[in-house]
Amino acid sequence: MGVPVPVGVVALDPVLEAGTRSTLLACPELTVCEPGKARVAVLTVDRLGPAELDMVRTTRAHLTRPAVVLVAGALASGDALHALAAGARGLLLRREADASRLAHAVLAAAQDDCTVPTDLLEQVLDRPEGAERGWAGGSLSDRERSVLRMVADGHETAEIAQQLAYSPRTVTTVVHDITQRFRLRNRAHAVAYALRAGLL
């Protein structure tokens, strides 16, 4: 057996954190450490919403760039896709996250592999065209989609405004609203996220 993989635990709820830590301690191929020193971070949440997706992004953005395994109490339709788009390398439902499955997901993430249970994978792959995705506000309006498509094609704000017959301020507001709603950094991040999440 090789060197144990250092894994950290991140949770908003101390009870969830303690339970996850206890489960990980039962895995000899893993060693539990502070999240800042981890190669893999396990995020345990009740449900997935904007705050939890921010946790995934923030954890991934840490200096050590740990892989993230997300363990959720429940995932609504489209949540798996949002989690993967935010940077999660593994997904598990809490009721299925015994020591063996959790260790498997962590070890796979440590090797830049991705693990998603079959039912969640079907949720990602089997999206009906035009269906609502994710939490409330998880889709784009026709106007938002039109603006983002033009941003994706490399058009500047003035060009988009002229072609769509909007004011430049309206175009800026539309892009700002998208980045705020999905907690994105900028226009390029908005386009990338929309493409990966199947919203565009």
From TrEMBL:
Recorded coiled-coil stretches: none
Gene Ontology biological-process entries: regulation of DNA-templated transcription
GO MF assignments: DNA binding
Domain HTH luxR-type: 133-198
Protein name: Helix-turn-helix transcriptional regulator
Keyword Ubl conjugation: no
Organism (species): Streptomyces griseofuscus
Pfam families in the cross-refs: GerE
SUPFAM superfamilies per UniProt: C-terminal effector domain of the bipartite response regulators (SSF46894)
Keywords linked to the UniProt accession: DNA-binding, Transcription, Transcription regulation
Gene3D superfamilies: 3.40.50.2300
